[in-house]
Specification:
With 517 residues, this protein is an alpha/beta fold. Among the domains are: 62-161 and 196-254 and 434-513, Rossmann fold, CATH 3.40.50.1820; 256-357, no CATH class. The chain is built from 15 helices and 12 strands. The chain has a 10-stranded mixed β-sheet with strand order 1-2-3-5-4-6-7-10-11-12, sandwiched between helices. The longest helix is centred in the middle third of the chain and has 26 residues, at 256-281. This is Alpha/beta fold hydrolase. Belongs to the peptidase S33 family. Keywords: Hydrolase, Membrane, Signal, Transmembrane, Transmembrane helix. Pfam families: Abhydrolase_1, Abhydrolase_4.
Length: 517
């Protein structure tokens, strides 16, 4: 409703007719004012109440907490955010052990809540995966998945340290090059930043962001790598945990190489399920009569592409490793990706046309494909991963792990095995082999795992829920193919949304049926 109300004249001596005309005019003015206050959807905008938190992060100077205010302005980039979004920067310490020292600017983006002001819960901070994925670019690209939550939350995202506009890591030939030329190039161009881009540092940024957004507790939705960040936050600040959703969680009990092995087994199993479906349901299935035949055909295709990559459009080509990653990206989409994958493989096998497979490949949230993105994703992926992981195996261990990964998957093993060398020559030590995520005393954290997830295998979801602690980690199981099940699975969406809107988590052992049921 409009706050503009028709006013009665207190001036004496006016006739009844004049008073009636005056009231009519004023009512009309009020109606126009109310119309002007309505947004494009026809809902009236009430005066917005800004929230204030009373629990700033401990140990930080007042200039960064009570003396700092986020100044939101209309976004100028990315182009998809130029309408309906606000952008800002937040000052944070480069090194939280020296909070009075150098500061950095953390890039932020917001879509303001559209629901009634008196029903707004606060801000929901989103991280879409990676590491190396920009939240400033990601929010407008993925808003359709979360837009319905605007009735209760401002939706907020950010570029984590090392990514996008937040102290971007540079590992190219020059200081302004977004390419990746190895650890030495990273040290040359970004050496002063590399010790401070790990997940635990970004988790501390999250708590400062929570306070400046005016929330007593952090409400957060993290996907894939975003679950590592959310779990790290819960461990560091259990009393500040609000409503945290960790979807498609990474396994906190596995080190970097163990994750690679588990992942390659999971993506191979997902491909085998696709191949069985293709043989049974798709005419002229490009992978043949089932999983065994599919592995042989894919091996022949990979050999062909290794000798001569296929054209993939836009001057790009598709080699054997590209084939594995592109197929994986289709599998990440669950059963929705199966029919397009069959068509794309047919085009590649029969016509040497890599365009359909390349077009259907998605780099959002896919760490292994980050090298193809036109930003600093590959550099950020490497820097954050190596800042987190203390694993620096010698060549004997590397050779052994490479052989194990290759043997675990006839389709994906060769491509995945090269990932174990990511940090072998990194110029700085990493923080830990596996993270601490126990969060005793925190509010319930909702962990959502899919039984057919090819990128973050389902056992990791069970391990995450257990590691968060008794009465903290609450596991919601989705019997679904694909990397993540929100909002595609209606049961998952309904359960997660209920938790985010009420704070009430589902019963222990809740299972949502889906494509694998």
């Amino acid at each position: 409703m409009s706050d503009v109300q028709p006013m009665r004249s207190g001036r004496p001596g006016l006739s009844i007719g004049v008073r009636v005309i005056a009231v009519v005019v004023l009512v009309a003015i009020g109606a126009v004012a109310a119309w002007l206050q309505r947004d494009g959807s026809g809902r009236s905008e009430q005066p917005r109440t800004e929230f204030t938190a009373s629990n700033p992060p401990a140990g930080l100077p007042a200039g960064l907490t009570t003396g700092q205010h986020i100044r939101w302005t209309r976004c100028t980039s990315p182009p998809t955010a130029r309408t309906d979004y606000d952008c800002a920067t937040m000052k944070a310490p480069l090194d939280y052990r020296k909070p009075d020292g150098r500061t950095i600017d953390v890039a932020l983006i917001r879509r303001k809540a559209t629901g009634p002001n008196n029903r707004r819960i606060g801000s929901l901070v989103l991280n879409f995966g990676g590491p190396g994925v920009s939240g400033v670019s990601g929010l407008p690209e993925l808003i359709n998945q979360y837009e319905h939550l605007l009735d209760r939350y401002d939706l907020v995202s950010f570029d984590p340290r090392g990514v996008g506009a937040t102290i971007p890591v540079r590992c190219g030939k020059t200081a302004h090059d977004t390419g990746y030329e190895g650890g030495d190039a990273c040290a040359e161009h970004s050496g002063a930043l590399l010790p401070y881009v790990g997940t635990s540092h970004t988790a501390r940024d999250l708590d400062l962001l929570r306070y400046l957004l005016g929330d007593q507790r952090l409400h957060y939705f993290g996907v894939s790598y975003g679950t590592a960040l959310g779990a790290d936050y819960a461990h560091l600040y259990p009393s500040h945990v609000g409503r945290l959703v960790l979807e498609a969680p990474v396994d906190p009990t596995e080190d970097f190489d163990e994750k690679k092995l588990s992942q390659v087994k999971a993506v191979q199993a997902a491909f085998d399920r696709f191949a069985a479906h293709c043989a049974d349901r798709i005419r002229h299935c490009p992978t043949g009569s089932g999983p065994e035949e599919a592995a042989r055909r894919m091996a022949r295709l990979a050999d062909r592409l290794e000798k001569k990559p296929a054209p993939a459009g836009g001057g790009k080509t598709l080699d054997a490793d590209d084939l594995a990653y592109a197929v994986s990206d289709h599998l990440d989409r669950g059963t929705d990706g199966w029919a397009p994958l069959a068509k794309a493989l047919t085009a590649l096998i029969d016509h040497n046309d890599g365009r359909p497979l390349n077009k259907g490949s998605d780099t959002i949230g896919s760490a292994d494909r980050a090298a193809t993105a036109p930003d600093n994703s590959r550099a950020a992926l490497t820097a954050i991963t190596c800042a987190d992981s203390s694993l620096r195996p010698d060549f004997a261990r590397l050779d052994k792990d490479e052989a194990r990964i290759k043997a675990a998957s006839p389709v994906f093993g060769a491509a995945w095995s090269t990932g174990i060398y990511l940090c072998y020559d990194w110029p700085f030590d990493g923080e830990r082999a596996t993270p601490q995520v126990d969060a005793d005393g925190a509010a319930p954290v909702l962990v959502v795992g899919g039984t057919g997830d090819p990128t973050t295998p389902y056992p990791g979801a069970r391990h995450m829920a257990r590691a968060l602690g008794e009465r903290v980690g609450v596991l919601l199981t989705a019997e679904e193919e694909g990397h993540g099940s929100y909002p595609q699975n209606r049961c998952v969406m309904k359960t997660v949304d209920h938790y985010l809107r009420t704070g009430r988590s589902p019963a222990v052992g809740t299972v949502c049926r889906g494509s694998m049921s």
